[in-house]
Amino acid sequence: MLHYYDSSPYVLKTQQRRLRPALSLSDANIRCLVWAEDALAYIHFVPTNLFSLQLIVADQDLEAASTAIMHSLPYKVSAGRDEHFVEAIILDPSQPSAFPHSVCLELTTPGSMDDPGSIDDPEKIFIHPMSQFCCDVHDNSRTLSLPPFSDNIRFPTRTAFLDSMIAMNMDPPSGRYHSKEVSMLRNWIAYLFTYTLRTWPAVLSNGDLEPERKEVLQSLREENRPYFNAYARKTFNWTEQVLGRKKVLEKLGRHEEARRPLPPPYPGNPALRAKAKANRLANQKRPYSLLASNGTRSVITNLSRFVR
User: pLDDT tens across 267-292, in order?
Assistant: First the structure.
């Protein structure tokens, strides 16, 4: 059952604990934009779980921002890759990160019973350069503050959030598509549609969008309006939207963006596919009784691990 919220589903104490890294940036006079689930939950009242804290800063502040957080809080630069944000091996054997230009910090001290609030400390923090997220942390007309937090800690308006995510979806600044990033952005777009646009039906009997959706549509950048319109009407076609967006950019005189080639498709993983195919063929040649016994053995093994 869908439940709407008229305030954040997270209490102030949780917000204050989660946003301590953002406060560190504010204390260092570094302006940041809170992104991802924290922005969805605190500003747009989406009842989502909270995962890694994601902060966007001006490109030139990227190193200073990570240093400021590490100096004031128990974080270090992550040595490994976050498995939630690496490409599926079946699509690309090199498994690149969804955020190749960002800094990832990880918590160095686990939660403690002596400090109950530590349960809300983000285990990882991603610090992103704003050029890779199609937004501007200095634009007050497209960002919001959240009292009682410092005015240097900003959150994207619904319009800015949608503009950024649509642009990243259609023409990623990194120059390539990443399945984890695309899936994440589409989920967040769906959240904003579901929890902030509550009037139904979305399309009126005369074919117009209902007033609130129409207002949001007009607030978006012109090149992103067709995406929103098609999404609201459930007539979305990926190829049509990508090509249509380029036509709008051409009309707006933004020729470099309009004529930029589409990112290459995923390279795939022929070796892994061949191995999987060989395994399937080998299994097809094995006697059914042997397959059944192996399947039973596998189930028993898994159950024994669970019991332990």
Answer: 899 888 888 888 888 888 766 555 55
**Beta carbons within 10 angstroms of residue 23's beta carbon:** 18
**Residue 106 · residue 78 · CB < 8 Å:** yes
* Phi, psi (rounded to 5 degrees) for 280: -65, -45
Rounded Cα distance, 42 and 216, in Å = 20
- What mean pLDDT do residues 261-270 have? 87
**What is the pLDDT, as a whole number, of residue 26?**
98
Cα separation, 228 vs 250, whole angstroms: 19
Q: How far is CA 173 from CA 42, 101, 165, 261, in A?
A: 27, 10, 11, 12
- According to DSSP, residue 263 is labeled P
Partner residues linked to 103 by β-bridges: 127
CA 210 vs. chain centroid, Å, equals 27
81: which residues sit within 8 A by CB, 6+ positions away? Answer: 95, 97
Host H or E run for residue 133 = none
Closest CA to 93 of 267, 246, 209: 267
For residue 308, pLDDT over 50 is answered with: no
Give the number of other CB atoms < 10 A from CB of residue 235: 10
Q: For the whole model, what pTM was predicted? A: 0.88
Cα–Cα nearest to 21, from 126, 132, 145? 126
pLDDT tens for 3-38 read 999 999 999 999 999 999 999 999 999 999 999 999
> Amino acid identity, residue 208?
D
* Residue 156: Cβ within 10 Å count: 26
Going 181 to 228 to 9 to 146, the CA torsion angle's sign is positive
